[in-house]
Amino acid sequence: MQRNEHFIGTLPEHDFALYQTKDVSKGFELQSVLPIDGLGKGYCTMEYCADGSLLAYVYDSRSEDHMPYCISQDGGDSWSEPKLSYFDKLIRNPQLVRTADNWFLHGRNGNNGDGLVLYSSKDGIHWSEGTMVIRRPGPGTGYYSNNLYLPDERRLLIQFSHVYDLNRVNIMHMWIENT
């Protein structure tokens, strides 16, 4: 039997699970399964809120202007019912981070997107209209990203792949100051 592997969920048993460890040398154990249906979905991003709750978003390939999210009040043991947040300029491969004063979410502006989009929020749920940070100069796919928040400096570093020729990319960096 041939398997069709894909990062987007294609079967009912494809779900999003949180694993934990108290000792890395002993491996990880299943902590919980998010209550978000995995069909047509991929990429999950999580971040802790200021009150200690855990916020999780999941990319939905069938609705790139809305992402389901759920919240855990007990460190990931249980989750709220899923709700939806709106993203005006679409989102794919979302990366979520909370800074001292704001939340940021960035990624490619949809499956067929042409650049990196950055959203901001005061609560991690209601998002700005988004800013296109950079657009590709021609055909090609890229704009996978990650971030690192430096709380002592109140700066956020965002790293992303920028298409310069077809599917050839360079790694770009940008700072967001006074976060």
Strands, helices and their partners?
Elements: E1 17-20, E2 29-33, E3 41-48, E4 54-60, E5 66-72, E6 83-86, E7 92-98, E8 103-108, E9 115-121, E10 131-135, E11 145-150, E12 155-165, E13 168-176
Antiparallel strand pairs: 1-2, 3-4, 4-5, 5-6, 7-8, 8-9, 9-10, 11-12, 12-13
Can you walk me through this structure?
The chain is an all-beta fold and 179 residues long. The relative contact order is 0.12.
Q: Give the % helix.
A: under 10%
Coarse shape: globular
Q: Stretches where pLDDT falls below 50 for ≥5 residues? A: none
In total, the number of strands is: 13
Quick structural overview:
The chain is an all-beta fold. Helix content is 0%, strand content 48%.
